[in-house]
From TrEMBL:
Pfam family, one: Amidase_5
Source species of the chain: Anaerococcus tetradius
Keyword Repeat applies: yes
Taxon lineage: Bacteria, Bacillati, Bacillota, Tissierellia, Tissierellales
Region (Disordered): 43-126, 150-173
This protein's UniProt keywords: Repeat
Protein name (database record): Cell wall-binding repeat protein
Start and end residues of each Bacteriophage lysin domain: 435-582
Length: 589
């Protein structure tokens, strides 16, 4: 009898509990249905800071930058297809806004997020929920992750673990209603707040613990909808409208951001995931045009005005830089792609003047003033640098224009430059012609006369002998590069002469030619057997002419292995300044 009575009591408790919970949700279906409802930020995680894309250049044709909601609704209604029997509508590709857009080329592959889906924003209007939106910019995803790790599933307090089955059944979930609002307590008796998982379902409670129903919730990365019982769900591959701003979710329910591909079309979303409209934007050296439906194109060979600046794309869709010929006219764009107008501009070594429409001309053989500095262009329109003869005078220029009051060496010649930029060569004061053939002629005459190798200070300058360095010095005097009676030096003084760059200057091994001088040894250590010198004779045959200790006289030998390099001595090469030559003796053997 007692068992029968207990079963009746259990059924009565269960039936009463069912009626109580149903009445709670029936009374709470439309709680907090006011549009300006905001949740206290103190409940949420740290808010996201507003950010902007500093690497992009934008122009929004509407102020402020926002989605054309009314225009979108109208356009979407026009293209909305009949919904299928399963309730999921298919949308046709949106038509081009105008003829110009129809001609825009299709954007080729770029780094984007690929998602499958419909061909355009389908029904992004408010759903059958009330037009009330809860927008929470806190890190709801992180809260959910934590809640999922430690689900707030209600259990009996430890003091009640020995309770009867009837008590456990009655206390399985601590839902209750107060003033037509639904609350929930966790296993410690505290109100559930924020995002909570209860018995495998997700719910959201405000700062006071009130269950939120019929709400749309946007987080940093995700979109949720709370139904009339407060159960949250995500909507993958969906267009959603929140506070008249349109968003799109991917196949995981996350909000798309940046340039994203949906079906076959590209769409432009802000850093917060809001669909952008009527925008011209430069990213990664490309111009992207966003129409009123948020659809993107990357036009080729296209003029664009963005922020009052003029740009032009090439056949690859990238913005042009430098000087470009467009339909028979020259236009110049700076490094950022901005077209120059009403000013002078340097580009790729040339100077251009531009008019009010950006058409450029490149003056040739002309003096020009640019940024307060004076330049001169050559016959091809390039700005000249170095020493140049203009109208019978030599002038010295650098990349900063005409220079004055300085000294410069060009191709081994030393020039003194006056205050007006006029350059004059500093001669070595040798009278007469400087001739390489005369230099080599002395060496050949010494070979024919049988001069022997001798390093004795007196013999090395005699008619019967010479050493390597005295032979070079005596040849230079004979060829007009040194004055008669000049000091007969050695390899050390040859190194010094090369450093001074008045008689000769150093050249690379790859540049050597007939009449150049080689000097082997280390400066400061080349005296005596520590050095050797002579002349390059034939570059093609790679031969030299020199006073050789091994052959006890002037010899023509291969270059490699006979300059002192076979002993490990380093070799430097020098070219005589102002030398004339007919290469008369180049083929001597």
């Amino acid at each position: 009898m007692k068992e029968v009575e207990m079963k009746k009591v259990n059924k009565t408790i269960l039936f009463a509990s069912t009626l109580f919970i149903s009445s709670i949700f029936a009374g709470a279906n439309h709680s907090y249905a006011q549009e300006d409802y905001k949740l206290d930020d103190s409940l949420t995680q740290a808010q996201n800071k507003e950010s902007s894309d500093s690497d992009s250049t934008k122009e929004n044709n509407q102020e402020p930058v926002n989605y054309d909601y009314e225009g979108l609704e109208k356009a979407l209604n026009e293209i909305e297809s009949d919904k299928a029997s399963d309730g999921k509508g298919e949308i046709e590709s949106t038509k081009a806004i105008n003829k110009e857009e129809q001609n825009l080329p299709t954007q080729e592959e770029i780094s984007i997020k690929e998602i499958s889906g419909d061909k355009g924003p389908k029904d992004a209007k408010n759903t059958n929920y009330q037009d009330i939106v809860y927008y929470d910019k806190s890190k709801l995803d992180e809260i959910y992750k934590e809640a999922k790790t430690k689900p707030q599933k209600v259990n009996l307090p430890s003091s009640s673990r020995g309770a009867s089955e009837e008590e456990r059944q009655a206390s399985k979930t601590n839902w209750y209603e107060e003033n037509s609002k639904v609350y929930h307590k966790d296993d410690k008796g505290s109100l559930s707040k924020g995002l909570s998982e209860i018995e495998g379902k997700k719910y959201y409670f405000d700062k006071d613990g009130v269950l939120q129903t019929n709400k749309k919730i946007i987080t940093n990365n995700s979109y949720y909808e709370a139904n009339d019982r407060g159960i949250l769900s995500q909507k993958p591959n969906s267009w959603v409208n929140v506070n008249k701003k349109v968003y799109r979710t991917d196949n995981k329910g996350n909000i798309l951001k940046g340039i994203s591909k949906i079906g076959k079309d590209l769409y432009n979303f802000s850093n917060e995931g809001v669909l952008q409209a009527n925008i011209k934007e430069i990213k990664d050296d490309m111009i992207y045009m966003t129409d009123k439906l948020g659809k993107i194109s990357n036009p080729k060979n296209f003029w664009a005005n963005i922020g009052g600046k003029t740009y032009r794309t090439g056949k690859d869709g990238k913005i042009l830089t430098g000087a470009n010929n467009i339909e028979g006219k020259t236009y110049v764009f700076d490094k950022d792609g901005v077209m120059a107008k009403n000013k002078g501009i340097m580009s790729q070594g040339r100077f251009y003047n531009t008019d009010s429409r950006g058409v450029a001309n490149n003056p040739k053989n002309a003096w020009i003033n640019f940024n307060g500095k004076k330049y001169h262009t050559n016959p091809n329109g390039y700005v000249q640098e170095g020493v140049w003869k203009i109208d019978g005078k030599l002038y010295y220029f650098t990349s900063n224009g005409l220079q004055g009051n300085t000294e410069v060496v060009q191709q081994g010649v030393v020039y003194k430059v006056d205050a007006n930029g006029i350059a004059k060569p500093v001669d070595n004061n040798i009278d007469g012609e400087k001739n390489l053939d005369k230099v080599i002629e002395w060496m050949l005459t010494a070979r024919k006369a049988g001069l022997r190798y001798d390093m004795h200070w007196k013999n090395r300058v005699s008619d019967k002998a010479a050493d390597c360095s005295s032979a070079v010095y005596r040849s230079l005097i004979y060829g007009g590069f040194l004055k008669q009676g000049s000091y007969i030096g050695n390899t050390e003084t040859l190194f010094k002469m090369g450093r001074e760059r008045k008689i000769m200057y150093e050249v690379k091994e790859s540049e050597i030619r007939y009449g150049d001088i080689f000097v082997a040894g280390t400066p400061g250590e080349s005296s005596g057997a520590g050095g050797h010198t002579g002349f390059i004779l034939n570059r093609a045959n790679d031969t030299i002419i020199h006073m050789s200790y091994g052959q006890d006289g002037v010899a023509i030998t291969p270059r490699k292995g006979y300059m002192g390099d076979s002993s490990g001595l380093p070799v430097r090469y020098y070219r005589l300044i102002g030398a004339g030559s007919n290469n008369l003796y180049e083929s001597e053997k």
